Amino acid sequence: FPMTINKAWKRAYEQKASVLQNENKPTQSNYIVVPLLRKNEFMGLLEAKNKKETFTEEDLLLLQTLGHQVVIALENALLYHRLKKSFFDTVQALAEAIDKKDHYTGGHIKRVVHFSVCIAKHI
């Protein structure tokens, strides 16, 4: 029984393993499905299909290598986002501490941020 692509996706997801399927029938496609895993955590799937010739083990290795690079890029993007958020949270906490220290300047930083955003929207 030929495996459909949805079944291949499910198999790659559940088994956390690559799937290589070569069908030489006009109604079936050939494909490779590679799970994108980060520390055994599923992040997505990478797929190649409908090659004129059959897929080889070399094709599978190439797609797996590309998949590893995609995971590294995604992980770097997540780390960058977390670092950026941490930086802004730290700046916000410091600004609030400064505002609370002096009643005269209290709320000044929030007002500056508000006006800066308003100006930026109009530019």
Keyphrases for this structure?
Beta-Lactamase, alpha+beta, about 60% helix
| CATH topology term | Beta-Lactamase
Instruction: Report the structural category.
Output: alpha+beta
How much is the average pLDDT? 83
> What would CATH call the class?
Alpha Beta
Rg over alpha carbons:
25 Å
* Helix percentage range: 55-70%
In what order do the strands lie side by side in the largest sheet?
A: 1-2-3
Just name the CATH architecture: 2-Layer Sandwich
End-to-end separation: 61 Å
Number of helical segments with 4 or more residues = 3
- The succession of helices and strands, N to C, reads HEEEHH
Low-pLDDT runs:
none
| Beta strands, count | 3
**Largest sheet composition:** 3 strands, antiparallel
* Relative strand content: 15-25%
Shape: elongated
Number of domains: 1
Write the layout of secondary structure elements.
Blueprint: H1 5-15, E1 19-21, E2 31-38, E3 41-49, H2 57-101, H3 108-122
Antiparallel strand pairs: 1-2, 2-3
How would you explain this protein's 3D organization?
With 123 residues, the protein is an alpha+beta fold. It has a single domain, classed as Beta-Lactamase (2-Layer Sandwich), CATH 3.30.450. The protein contains 3 helices and 3 strands. Strands 1-2-3 form a 3-stranded antiparallel beta sheet, sandwiched between helices. It is elongated, with a radius of gyration of 25 Å. The mean pLDDT is 83.
Compact summary:
By secondary structure, the protein is of the alpha+beta class.
